[in-house]
Known about the structure:
The structure is a single chain. The chain has one domain (8-488). It has helices at residues 8-11, 23-50, 53-56, 61-72, 74-78, 87-105, 107-113, 124-143, 166-177, 185-213, 228-244, 252-269, 272-277, 286-289, 291-295, 297-314, 322-349, 359-383, 401-412, 431-438, 440-457, 465-488; strands at 116-118, 319-321. By secondary structure, the protein is mainly α. 51% of the residues are buried. The longest helix has 29 residues, at 185-213. The chain starts with 7 loop residues before the first helix and ends in a 6-residue tail after the last helix. Helix 2 runs antiparallel to helix 4 (61-72), helix 9 (166-177) crosses helix 16 and helix 11 packs across helix 16. A acetyltransferase, which acetylates the inositol ring of phosphatidylinositol during biosynthesis of GPI-anchor. Its EC number is 2.3.-.-. It is a multi-pass membrane protein. Belongs to the PIGW family.
Amino acid sequence: MDSGLIGLAEVYDIPEQHTDKRSFKSIEQSLLSQFAILASFSGVVLARAILTPKRTSRLTPTICYLVEFPLVVVPGVLFVTVASDYSAHFVAVMIALLFFYIMRTRAISRIKKQSQFNVGSRPIALTVGRALTHLITSICILAIDFGSFDRRYRKSRLFGARLMDTGIGLFVVVMGLVSRRPRSCIELRRHVLLSAMPLILLGIARVVALLAIDYGQDEHEYGVHLNAFFTLGLTKLFGSIFGYFAHTDWQLLPIAFCVLVCHQVALTFGGISEYVMDDDVLRTTFLSANREGIFSIPGFVALYLLSIYFGRWLFAKTVYSFKEMIGKLRSLLIIVIACWLLMAVSAYAVGISRVTCNLGYVIWMFAIMSTMLWLTMVIFNLIFEEANERKLDEPQSLMDETQFNESENLEKGLLIPSKTVAIKSSGTQCIIIESLNMNGLVYFLLANISTGCVNIFLKPKKRSDAASVLILHIYMFVVTFAVFQLYKRRIRIA
């Protein structure tokens, strides 16, 4: 996540020595970050509980958007700024309300009577996870420039597990969850030309734009010349190449583990970690100038490959029996617990570092995403009855070619003619979430452009807490309303 023209000490939490893994602090930070994410997720759940399908059928899309905005977006803004101390309290209240909802609707008895559970060709869990990643990232990239932003959420310079450390990692996970391995040279070429290259070109365009307007880029995040678009594009490029050599989805696991282990060995025993983190190393060559972005790529590639396999395993079918659904959720819960335990162990063993995308960081990303996927499936696919009322006439397996074409469109959104797009709801009944999914890249670009404009014209560091929160809400209203208008008109650009 980029921060624009802001001092290094104000952006990063900098340890005294680059060898300090800050193990216990990282665990504490990861829990704090999780509560911030859960606060935004709770807003989505609250919006779905209030705007039931019966109610939304009587309201116009614009009214639904106006009702959803304070429920979905406002908590995300408040709980990273002036109300950051109360995110855990908000989550606790939402848990209590959820239990009340379960008791009032007798959801448990209804679930037991359900013979089939339709997760759909567009799983709700992926829709919510993808949209939350966009939503939280867009809030943070501007909020960090204001004094009201909670310093505990700022990026870690070397080791740490803060909220803003999650951005690029969760984008890679989501990109992997909706992707598949290329099975032929034609598919590999399509992955490279239609997925990886546009991201790399956006990275180049961003560099040119920043140079043209003389807008600063923090060299300690991705390097002097690289940025998040390069990381995503190169991850997609090399991930597709590695995936091409896997003959089955299962083979993605050993390939990913091999890449990750080799990456961690190089970081720990090859001196790469010290080289990347040492400020005394001069940035005289392209490699040294961009060492953060370059040497983190293997870790992100491993994370991407693991995410592809995980998505294939989790959503292997679109319709599950009661026994299959409970078994899947039980297995996913075990993965959630295992990931958090491994994250705690890795925090002491190798540390958690976004700047190198090491083993600890990869495990942490999976801990977050698996947690959110489990919660979304339990709440939306089990507790909220609308998801279970969808027609059971969709493909029974995600092996269906059409489904993967749609998944790739979710990932890049570049192939579908805007005039022929039909809105296909994932079942969230949340217009803001659906809008972010339909035009995620457009939303992210608008957020970045708006962030630059605010920094140039409004001087955020000079704003009071009240003014900063007001500006953030206006900014979020503008960018979310823009993609909502595209969604309402059934226009998918990217």
